[in-house]
Amino acid sequence: MEVEKAESPTTRKKKPGGAKITACILAVEFCDRLATAGFQANMITYLTKYLNLPLVKASNIITIFSGTAHFTPVAGALVADSFAGRFWTILSGSLVYFLGMITITIFVFIPAFRPPPCPTQTDCKEASNFQLGILYVALFLQCIGSGGIRPCVVSFGADQLDMSKAKVEARKWNLFNWYYMSLGLASLIAITVLVYVQDNVAWSWGLGIPTIALVLSIIVFVLVSPLYVKLRPQGSPFTRLAQVIVAAFRKRNVAAPSDPSQLYENTELDAAISLNGRLQHTNHFRWLDRAATVTEADIDGLNRPKAWRLSTVHRVEELKSVIRILPIWGAAILVFASYANQHSFAVLQGRTMDRHLFGSFSIPAASLTIFGIAGLFSGVFLYERIFVPCVRRFTHNPTGITHLQRIGIGLALNMMVSIIAALVEIKRKQVAAAHDLLDKPNAVIPITIFWLSPQFFIHGLGEVFLHVGLMEFIYDQCPESMKTTAIALYSLALSLGDYLGTSIVAFVHNHSSTEAWLPKGNLNKGKLENYYWLVTGIQAVNLIYYVLCAWRYTYKPLALHST
Questions:
Q1: I need a labelling partner for 446 at 20 to 30 A (CA). Which of 49, 154, 179, 354 fits?
Q2: Residues 268, 220: one domain?
Q3: Per the UniProt record, which residue ranges are transmembrane (predicted)?
């Protein structure tokens, strides 16, 4: 049963925008990631060396901070989609993030905000609750700011593309690749220039530089604002999802019609949330069809129905689309949890290894991430220029492989990273034992730090498949009106992965044998390789679960508006 509209909402009013404008939007996220990566990459060093915190406590602070920074985008997406819009949400988030950067820069600059130095790294006085409180305030402000920036940047950038132009769909998917490339470039600068400045000049300069860059990006973002395409928010998508659930529950005793054409549709009512096409009925979760079932009590108000009693097929299918995504999304949470702490542990491993590159120059352990960035850059280039064109000949898919296949490859690569990490840790301790260095935590083990580079490179390669693929999948399969929320769901998966990863580390630390896998001080006396084997097993089970979910997944059907 359908209520027709005189005109089809196939086009929107032509406004400014374009790829060049999108670049200005990405600049804000670039500076956000520059600041985050510049501090987070070397944060384990600051917490353990300058604040004298134990390994497990420092690692958990990092993952909780990362998890919160990935959780706040959910709130930011709700604000943007409900009333504020993407432009104002990005701008507000940038200003709050700037306050956080100012606070953290002052924190590392003033000596009173850290305990006395402890060169021996034994029986050291830890940072006080007051000192840690200042740190937590700064990190919390950064998390709030990221919540306004991260969920809106990609969707706001996509808004600038005219979807009526030829081949724009392909450019939209390229946007995700280049978005992730820009994040990789920011991380590259952070882990080379900024980490070097932190280790060899001053932490205040290492954090002050990205603060200045953030200010400049905010200025450019505001100056270019008259050229942006700014779509009006259409209300909270979660309210519409709740309306479907309530309507279906209220009609739980009503039988849904066997003929889907008898379900309620209203093109005028759905016009603002279906600019690119209406979702078609599917046979999944048929009990939700009751929300679109017209009863005698609904007959008199079909043109303007009560939203909490009668929903359109399009709105019912919005909820079904979200439900279908959740199992795939859940698989991502487990893999994110598995490697949530691997970077921090690798940095600590690197600090015990030979870091000399040439002459007296030695690279900071945190700069190992450069190999991950190299893997990311190489992966994007090879994926776009070689992999997709070759595979497209066999699959006849414009993107080469499906989003689900891309995610699956990423899951397999990340499991390989954990295996390599375990083998490298075994090798590192064998060399330490051979030179009688197991009881000397500050000694340099005669094994080059570049043994750690393969795991970082493969991890970066895996991000091209897993992270970009997951972002594309969620963005594509989420309802049109939930594009900002879709990016927030991606961030939420990272957040829950960080929190779950923290729980795994805490569990391992509390329940490992008398020889702790994750020791408080001397990493050489631990069993870090056992932790890596544990997360490898988790990822193996998760990969099997993912394959089963992907095999049964059904892509959402979309009916394009006739032109």
A1: 49
A2: no
A3: 61-80, 87-113, 133-157, 178-197, 203-229, 322-341, 361-383, 404-424, 444-466, 487-511, 531-551
